[in-house]
Write a structure and sequence with these properties.
The complex is a heterodimer.
Chain A lengths: L9 H12 L8 H11 L5 E4 L5 E5 L7 E8 L4 E7 L4 E7 L10 E5 L4 E5 L9 H5 L9 E2 L12 E4 L4 E3 L2 E4 L2 H15 L5 E8 L7 H10 L3 E9 L23 E2 L10 H14 L4 E2 L9 H4 L8 E9 L6 E4 H17 L11
Parallel strand pairs in A: 3-12, 3-13, 13-16, 14-15
Antiparallel strand pairs in A: 1-2, 2-12, 4-5, 4-9, 5-8, 6-7, 6-9, 7-8, 10-11, 11-17, 14-16, 16-17
Helix pairs in contact in A: 1-4, 4-8, 6-8
Chain B lengths: L4 H7 L10 H11 L5 E4 L5 E5 L9 E7 L5 E7 L2 E5 L13 E5 L3 E7 L21 E3 L4 H7 L5 E4 L4 E3 L3 E4 L2 H17 L7 E7 L7 H10 L3 E9 L18 E4 L5 H14 L4 E4 L8 H4 L8 E8 L7 E4 H16 L5 H4 L5
Parallel strand pairs in B: 3-12, 3-13, 13-16, 14-15
Antiparallel strand pairs in B: 1-2, 2-12, 4-5, 4-9, 6-7, 6-9, 7-8, 10-11, 11-17, 14-16
Helix pairs in contact in B: 4-8
Classes of the chains: A alpha+beta, B alpha+beta.
């Protein structure tokens, strides 16, 4: 293994633990940004926080005719915002980003920059009727309870699930794997930036509320091409009737998922081919994400300026946008290995091919 | 008065589902052992601690019963490395998606309750509440390993961690009824400094959540002259505000109804006034839904009383109680026991 090859070991797990346990709901990513800055500072040529809160890192290469390659991972996560103080330690809230309200009931949460603990309860089953239990509990009926004395919480404070990172065999269980695993991967790539490119790392904000950070970051960097690193849903679950699951999107243990088409982007075919060929040459497993809905920051990036050839690569993960996500360590390792190997292969002629 | 919070936190950091109470039983046994004269297990697994009274023999006895079992789930099948489960109809299925659980297989496995996407379910089943039969548990290990470690019938418990909230409250799973076990522990500690004539049976019952099997059998074995059941009741809170609910941090709640001996109810009320302990009155027009239902009709019948601790979000992983209510309940029990004398039994009348 070449000396400058990134690996996933104790330090990387610790970093991912800090990143997933941090509170960084869209529009309030500061806690995550601080961890990222700490991670990349010793390795960056330039670091800048832009007007929207993106952390933009430049690492220059040394070769001639270097391509400017943007790598993107979003720092924000879905979550909640306190919208009113109802007294006695009870607070009403709204959701931020795509959350199924059914996933909020009976959860521990952390509120604000001080991580004040609270719970979202549900009334006792004994006090409900069967008819009532058939309908899901609407958002208006849910409140965050921090205890009868209340706490130093203000309207506008963000909240998220209180889930703590844990490793279980080859699996990782944590909240906000989407997209802290992309952030952790990108930090490693900055640390191990290959000399043949100018590496432009965008740790973006507000992906979950409309890919807003990525748009600004791409406009600033004006790269030749871009890779969005994210976590894509793995729906590799059994069907109720035992029938074949043909709509799995991605599957765990099948390596990094390369995006071909989602609801906001058609991946650049040259880059899709480049990634799959790099994986094959290096013996790294990979999978194509099933074309379908969803999207990543690539949706904003590829239509920026006069157009930026883009593609997304994701670590497959189950149960995104819920209290506990699950992904596999080998998939993470292979994603990092694929991206690093691909970056090493980026040559000025990469985009000279025809799209086919 | 000792701080009961660390003990109660420890009680809700372990499992102890109905019929599988051993993990929590060990913690209670360890804590009670120095507080009682004898301690033993019933044939069904209820914990019996005897603290002898100072009266001459034959001494009457009082049992204070708190169930130690907790609600939970059970594996009903394995499917491609995922688990199907049942909730025994004691959990609102709406609190299940996305919960952290522990599957008690050949080894304890952390798991996640999964609500599959609607497209993997029958038409319409993915809208609104997804029924328990369609939910899955993912334990994050390969299918062949799951098959090795997990079998049909393995219990599954909530894995939520205890969390201290403001106003001296505590949230977590199984506070129903570990909060009452803690109150009984406070009572036993208080009794170290109180002369009591009667024998006291401190009882942590099993299987209350299923069919009161522990209460029936412990009452039969111990034949107490009186029984006080301590359980949790519904607290006022989001979505819960009618006559069945009581404010937290405003003291214990005294039951009244067919499962409660009227004289005992009256004595407890008078005692609360005397001790200046605030209290609520809980109408229990039918079945009290507690161990008292069973103990009252054991053998020749036992005069029973129900004292309850208000609890928010019952049967969810984030049940919430006020620690002060636990302390007050313990103090009230100890004072009641201290006041029992040779004439108490004779003075009980249904016609007051």
């Amino acid at each position: 293994m070449p000396a400058n090859t990134p690996t996933i070991a104790a330090a990387q797990f610790k970093l991912l633990e800090r990143l997933t346990n941090a509170l960084g709901v869209s529009g309030d990513e500061g806690e995550v940004r601080r961890i990222v800055r700490e991670g990349v500072s010793p390795f960056a040529d330039q670091i800048k926080v832009d007007a929207i809160g993106n952390l933009l890192v430049t690492k220059h290469g040394s070769g001639r005719n270097r391509l400017r390659v943007m790598l993107d991972a979003h720092m924000d996560e879905i979550g909640l915002m306190i919208v009113s103080d109802e007294g006695d330690g009870l607070y009403n809230f709204e959701t931020v980003g795509g959350i199924d309200v059914r996933q909020l009931v009976g959860k521990n949460v952390l509120i604000g920059r001080e991580h004040i603990p609270g719970v979202i309860g549900a009334k006792a089953i004994h006090l409900t009727t069967q008819e009532e239990r058939r309908k899901s509990i609407p958002l208006e009926a849910l409140q965050i309870d921090v205890g009868p004395q209340g706490a130093k919480i203000e309207v506008g404070d963000r909240a998220t699930f209180a889930t703590r990172f844990q490793r279980v065999g080859a699996s990782i269980m944590a909240k906000a794997i989407d997209d802290r695993i992309g952030v952790a991967t990108l930090i490693e790539l900055v640390k191990h930036a290959p000399p043949n490119i100018d590496l432009l790392a965008a740790f973006t904000v507000q992906e979950e509320v409309g890919l807003r950070g990525a748009k600004v970051a791409a406009q600033t960097f004006a790269p030749d091409l871009a890779f969005a690193i994210d976590s894509t849903p793995a729906y590799d679950l059994p069907r109720y009737d035992g029938g074949e699951n043909t709509q799995y999107n991605t599957r765990l243990d099948h390596g990094p998922a390369i995006y071909i088409a989602d609801s906001s982007t058609l991946g650049d075919p040259r880059l899709i081919r480049f990634l799959s060929k790099s994986a094959e040459a290096e013996g790294i497993p990979y999978q194509f994400r099933q074309p379908g809905g969803g999207g990543t920051d690539a949706g904003a990036i590829h239509r920026t300026l006069a157009g930026i050839p883009s593609v997304s690569v994701s670590v497959p993960g189950r149960y995104a946008h819920t209290a506990i996500g699950l992904c596999r360590v080998p998939d993470w390792k292979h994603t990092l290995a694929l991206l690093h190997a691909a970056l090493l292969r980026v040559s000025p002629g990469l985009l000279a091919d025809e799209r086919r | 008065m000792s701080d009961i919070k660390p003990f109660l936190k420890s009680l809700i950091s372990v499992s102890g589902l109905s019929a599988y109470e051993t993990p929590v039983m060990h913690l209670i046994e360890e804590r009670w052992r120095p507080l009682v004269d004898e301690i033993s297990l019933s044939k069904l697994g209820s914990l019996h601690g005897l603290k002898r009274g100072s009266g001459s023999t034959p001494r009457p006895s009082i049992a204070v019963a708190t169930h130690m079992d907790a609600i939970g789930l059970m594996v009903t099948g394995l499917m491609d490395g995922f688990l199907h489960f049942t909730d025994g109809a004691v959990v609102d299925p709406r609190v299940l998606p996305g919960q952290a659980v522990t599957v008690h297989g050949r080894q304890d496995l952390p798991g996640i309750i999964v609500q599959p996407p609607a497209r993997f379910l029958p038409e319409g089943a993915g809208d609104g509440t997804v029924e328990v039969q369609y939910l899955l548990v993912d334990v994050g290990v390969p299918a062949r390993k799951v098959a090795e470690l997990v079998r049909v019938g393995d219990p599954i418990s909530f894995a939520s961690q205890p969390v201290a909230l403001t106003g001296e409250t505590l949230a977590g799973h199984s506070l129903d009824n570990r909060a009452s076990v803690a109150a009984l522990t406070v009572c036993l500690e208080e009794l170290k400094g109180i002369v009591h004539a009667w024998d006291v049976w401190a009882v942590a019952t099993v299987q209350e959540e299923i069919n009161y099997a522990g209460a029936y059998t412990s009452a039969y074995e111990l034949r107490p002259d009186l029984a006080i059941v301590v359980d949790t009741t519904f607290a006022k809170g989001p979505g819960a505000n009618d006559w069945r609910t009581f404010p937290i941090n405003k003291g214990p709640v005294l039951g009244i109804g067919p499962n409660i001996h009227p004289s005992l109810h009256k004595r407890f009320k008078e005692l609360c006034d005397q001790l200046e302990i605030p209290f609520g009155i809980e109408p229990m027009p039918h079945h009290s839904g507690t161990d008292a239902y069973a103990m009252q009709v054991t053998a020749e019948g036992v005069p029973t009383m129900v004292v309850s601790i208000p609890l928010r979000y019952m049967h969810t992983p984030v049940e919430l109680i006020a620690l002060k209510d636990v302390q007050r309940t313990g103090r009230l029990l100890a004072a009641f026991i201290g006041g029992l004398d040779r004439d108490t039994l004779n003075s009980l009348s249904g016609d007051e």
